Amino acid sequence: MKEDNTTKISDPKSSQDSQSSQSSQSTNSTALAEPQAKPQGKRQDASQDTSQSNPNHNNPQKDPDSQSRAPQSQASQESQVSQASQASQPQTKAQGSQGAQDFVPPQLNVSKVTGRLIGSIVATAGICFMGILTETMMNVLFPHLMQEFGIDAATVQWVTSACILTIAAVIPLSAFLKKRFSFRQVFAAAIAVGIVGGLIAMWSPSFTVLLVARILQGLSTGICMPLMFNVVLEQSPRAKLGVLMGVCNLVVGLAPALGPTFGGLMITIMPWRHIFLIIIVFIALFGVLGFLCLRQSSPVDRHATLSIAQTVCVAGGFALLIFGLQKTGSWIEQAVVGAPLGSLPAVCLVSVLGGIALIAVFVRLSLGSGNPLLNLRVLRHPALRCAVAAAVFVQFIQLSLSYVVPNFSQMGLGATSLQAGLTVLPGALIGAMLTALSGRVLDRRGPLLPIGCGLTVLLCGLVFQAVATPALTIGGLMLGYALCEIGFSNTYSNTFTVALRTVPLAENPDGNAAFNTMQQFGCAFGTTVSATIVSVFQAVEQNKGASFAAATTTGAHWAYIAAVIAGLIAACLIAKELKHDRREYQPVAL
After folding, report:
1. Residue 581 — pLDDT band, cuts 50, 70, 90?
2. CB neighbours of 87 closer than 8 A, spacing ≥ 6?
3. Where is the composition biased (Low complexity) (predicted)?
4. Which terminus has fewer CB within 10 Å in the chain: N or C?
């Protein structure tokens, strides 16, 4: 009831319906008549149509039709004022602890990009950036962690996979968190958990404790990432959506690329534990900025409930599936070298099948629930459905490269940690500059140009590295990675933006949660598969008498081939998305 009343206030389409049922009406009473809106179910599609056809849809008072109508009678105006006052009461209650000055109904104050909005984006994006940066920073530290804790490559990759799986498990909760808590409360939780995780990582006396710290850091990132996108989707002008979404996805794309560079530089000047202190400082600074700038743009439902069964199923399903895939790699590795398998095959089968079963149960529960954890019905939109599937494979590629490039350069080409980090720097910087630019091209020219060019360059970079792996030098590796980052920067963000533009505004949080959940699964899947492939071929080739460097090169070659296959699948899915989107998308003239 609270959300319905708030929605009615901000619905220009419903305002027009109300106006047409009256004999005469003044400009000032137009906004007051908005509480007489139609039910929310009908409002969503109408709002979307209006936003595309009416340039004044964000400001009903500027509608020339409404300005030309005769003034309304005094009695009718008083009645409408009373209705508006009644409609605003549930909204005030829903705000809870949020001050009235912080609450901005969606789509009312979105005519320009304000300084407060920029500060909110910088703060939330900064937390996400530090969290994702740490994911791939750890890849450069793998040799140091393997030596200090006495573990192998298949085990050490869990400091990344555990974090990514936590993010994937938390992101489905984002729709619930958005309904139940204010933006500032969610942001405060992300800050607190991130700082605690960093402190534990600094102290970690064992690999197990380090894993716990990484899980907490993943929890912080998983909480803050959907918040970042929700702020943009609710508070940004429609005409600037592509650019601002590009800036947000710049964080998602740039941080993994800069992680190895940052880690390689830091490990040369300080112990790896001290790196987490720097991360804690930045988290605290972004936290201060967020508390100063974040505002509430949607009502809070204090009575929203969380489905424990659905939470357990989605989190357990993803975790078991990734764990089973990693153990399958160990199974293959031990079978090749002739080591005893013991119960390993049974563990692999139970984990993979159990993960699939739990995910199937989650889908069943979600579709049959009136209060789903993750609203899978939003996937009825074909463009979003294709984009969500494509996100898995695009992020598979990104995280595969983030694992293979620094580790191949160190273990295969003999580079230092700093050199390995610098290998990805040019591509990361070029990709960063192009991400926001490609969003502007999307706003002006539509999706075909940036996404088509991006996919082409991405596939060229992957094929180049796969074919030339045995002959690659640091320079060649740098070139191939730069091509992939150029393609990624033009593809990923725009695919996300185009998909959400085909979804009614009220369902954007659900589409956001579905997209981010699956892209995090793609991250974990990419890291696990690439690490498993490299580890298996290291064992296989060394068993044949090859050197460790040569064995690593062979493993990297096959990891690149897996990335090429993922790229081809992603290209097919994105082409299908654009086909579904073609009839609905209308470029905005800037």
Report:
1. low
2. 5, 8, 9, 35
3. 15-26, 67-95
4. N
Q: Is residue 100 part of a domain?
A: no
Q: Tokens at residue 563, please? A: 């990335």
Q: Pick from 372, 388, 421: which residue ends a domain?
A: 372
**Residue whose C-alpha is closest to residue 509's, from 43, 517, 88:** 517
Position 164 in a domain? yes
Q: Give the integer Cα–Cα distance in Å for 351 and 322.
A: 8
Instruction: Please return the burial class of 380, using the count of CB atoms within 10 Å of its CB with bins 0-12, 13-18 and 19+.
Output: exposed
* Structure tokens belonging to residue 156: 């050490």
484 and 468, same domain (yes or no): yes
Q: What is the mean pLDDT of residues 220-228?
A: 87
- Range scoring the smallest mean pLDDT among 414-428, 512-526, 536-550, 560-574: 512-526
Would residue 242 count as lying in a domain? yes
Which stretch, 145-159, 552-566, 575-589, has highest mean pLDDT? 552-566
Query: How far, in Å, CA of 516 to CA of 510, rounded?
Result: 10
What is the distance, to the nearest Å, from the Cα of residue 158 to the centroid of all Cα atoms in its chain?
20
Task: Please say if the pLDDT value at position 229 is more than 70.
Answer: yes
Write the DSSP string, 254-270. Answer: HHHHHHHHHHHHHHHHS
Q: How far is CA 457 from CA 282, 461, 484, 497, in A?
A: 34, 6, 7, 20
Answer yes or no: do 380 and 358 share one domain: no
| pLDDT score recorded for residue 242 | 66
Please state the domain count of the chain: 2
Output the DSSP codes for 190-217.
HHHHHHHHHHHHHH--SHHHHHHHHHHH
Let me know whether 232 and 331 are in one domain.
no
- The 10 Å CB-count burial string (b at 16+, else e) for 220-252 is bbbbbbbbbbbbbbbbbbbbbbbbbbbbbbbbb
- Residue 551 belongs to a domain with what CATH number? 1.20.1250.20
**378 and 423 assigned to the same domain:** yes
Q: Helix, strand or coil for residue 296?
A: strand
pLDDT for res 253: 64
Token pair 């804790």: residue: 149
Residue 252 and residue 392 in one domain: yes
Structure tokens at 455: 């996919």
| Residue 191 backbone dihedrals phi, psi, to 5 degrees | -65, -50
Same domain, 543 and 450: yes
How is residue 379 written in tokens? 């996937």
In angstroms, the Cα distances linking 145 to 148, 150, 151, 205, 266 are 5, 8, 8, 12, 15
User: What whole-number percentage of the chain has pLDDT above 70?
Assistant: 77
Q: What local confidence, expressed as pLDDT, does residue 434 receive? A: 81
Name which of 11-20, 119-128, 299-308, 359-368 the model is least confident about. Answer: 11-20
Answer whether 36's CB lies under 8 Å from 7's CB. Answer: no
Q: Flag whether pLDDT at 452 surpasses 80.
A: yes
- Tokens 């400009």 -> residue: 27
Q: Report how far residue 104's alpha carbon sits from residue 108's, in angstroms, rounded to the nearest whole number.
A: 7
Range of the domain at 378: 115-295+373-581
For residue 103, give the 3-state DSSP assignment: strand
Sequence-separated contacts (24+) of 199-204 with Cβ below 8 Å: 199/276, 199/280, 201/273, 201/276, 202/273, 202/274, 202/276, 202/277, 203/273, 204/273
Average pLDDT over residues 512-538: 80
What is the token pair recorded at 490? Answer: 């033009």
The CA distance from 566 to 61, in Å, is 50
265 and 331: one domain?
Answer: no
